[in-house]
Amino acid sequence: MDHSGINERLKEYIETEIITRYASFDPAHREDHARDVISEALRLAEYYPVDKNMIYTAAAFHDTGLVEGRERHHLVSGGIIREDPRLPEWFSPDEIETIAQAAEDHRASGKSSPRSIYGKIIAEADRDIIPLKILRRTVQFGLEHYPELDREGHWKRFVEHLHEKYYYGGYLKLYIPESRNAPALEELRVMISDEAGLRRVFDDIFDNEHNTN
What we know:
Layout: H1 8-18, H2 31-45, H3 52-61, H4 73-83, H5 93-104, H6 117-127, H7 131-145, H8 151-165, H9 181-193, H10 195-212
Helix pairs in contact: 2-3, 2-6, 3-5, 3-6, 4-5, 5-6, 7-8, 7-10
């Protein structure tokens, strides 16, 4: 991860006090997810006239609201940013508000587009469309949050979620043309179209995850 241009004291704070919070979240939203979003957000920031410290901070905080559950986590993340006692050391009130809005606007199921280029970059970085990774996260989320379901129940939820979010007409939107997500999303859609192949992948992931939990 290239942290060049990031304030060293800010980076130390984020690394020791913010990213560590992800350790208690579900397997799809642990520290590796936060670091992946930070890395991709900083890569995309190179294409736009944005403040990299603000991008770095928004990416690091974007899912911290999961501490209060998934449904409103994006809004809770924005509140955590606004109330953070240390961020005024590095950012003005207007900059903190932009960072908070970027975190609030990252959620794929949001009804409107992000309010700024900062929000678009964080939203795009959070998409992180790597087909097999998406499929594994979907199984992991189901096992974590719906332990009462049997294999067929998890398969049904898995397919429904993929169609609702990623398939043609799904709610996931892409915003940054320099992102790697567009071709990866098309690859994922091809996989979703092949139900027999998708079931084989699901069964492999399900067996692996079920045996490790």
